[in-house]
Amino acid sequence: MLRSRLLLTGALGLAAAGARAQTADAELRFNQGLLHLKEGRAEMAVEEFKKAINLDKKNPYFLKGLGLAYVQQRKYSDAVEAFKRALEFNPYYVDVRNDLGAALILMGRRDEGKKEFQQVFGEPTNPTPELAARNLGQAYFEEQNYAEALKWFQASVKRNSKYADAQLGLAESLIALRRLDEAVVQLEAASNNIPDDVSILLALGDAYFRSGRFTEARAKLEQVAKTDPTGPSGRRAAELLQNLPR
C-alpha cells in the first residue's frame, strides 16, 4: 500500500497569518517563505521566515513556518525549538502541537512525540483531531505495535471517515494482525465512501490479490492503472498486474 509516513499540518493554514503581521515587509517575507516552502526550497524558506521573525518576533505563525522549513531540511532539533517558541506565544495554536509531535518522533524522541499527539487529539479546539490520531497510529505501526496502531487508526476514521490515509493505515494494521478478511471488508466500505481515491482502490485490489480473489483484484488494479497511469498508485497497480494469475 502507498501511504505517507508522519504528516505535518503543513503550510496551507498559515496564509491567514499575513494579516497579523506588524509590518507589510514582515507579511511579504512570510508569504515569500510560504512560496519557497511549497515548492521545496527549504533553505530559501528558512531565510525568508527568519527575516519575517526579525520584523515580528512574537508571531507564532512565522515560527510555525520556520519549523516546517527546518523539517524539510531534516533539522529536527531546530524545528522542535521553533514549534516550542510558537507555542510560547500562542499556547492555543493546537496545529503546532501536531507538528511538534512529528518533529520529536523524527528526531528519535518517540515517547515525547506520541505524548504530544495524544494531548492534541484530546484538545477541544483542535480542528483536525483525525490527523493526530492518524499520526499516533503511524507511530505505533512503525514500532510494530499493531494492536495499538489499529486503535488509533480506528479513532481517526471515526472522526473523519473520508480520511484516506487513516483508512489505509487501518487496513495495513488489520493485515499485520493477520485479519485479512476484515481488511477487505473495511477497504470495500472505504472504497464506497471515497470512490475517487486511487490509493484506496489500489489497496483494495492488493487485498483481493492477497485473498486469492484474482478476478476482483484485476478489475480494481486495471481501474487504478487506467486512472493514474504515471502516478505512484498506477505504477504499483501495473506491477501487481504483472504478477496476477490469469
Description:
By secondary structure, the protein is mainly α. It has a domain at 1-127: Alpha Horseshoe (Serine Threonine Protein Phosphatase 5, Tetratricopeptide repeat), CATH 1.25.40.10. The chain is built from 13 helices and no strands. It has helices at 24-38, 42-55, 60-72, 76-89, 94-106, 110-121, 129-142, 146-159, 164-176, 180-193, 198-210, 214-227, 232-242. α7 (129-142) packs antiparallel against α8 (146-159). It starts with 23 loop residues before the first helix and ends with a helix. The model is unreliable at 15-19 (pLDDT under 50).
Short précis:
By secondary structure, this protein is mainly α.
Number of helices: 13
The CATH class name of the domain at 1-127 reads Mainly Alpha
Fraction in helix:
over 70%
Low-confidence blocks of residues: 15-19
Distance between the termini: 22 Å
Cα-atom Rg, whole angstroms? 20 Å
CATH superfamily of the domain at 1-127: Tetratricopeptide repeat domain
CATH fold category name of the domain at 1-127: Serine Threonine Protein Phosphatase 5, Tetratricopeptide repeat
Number of strand elements:
0
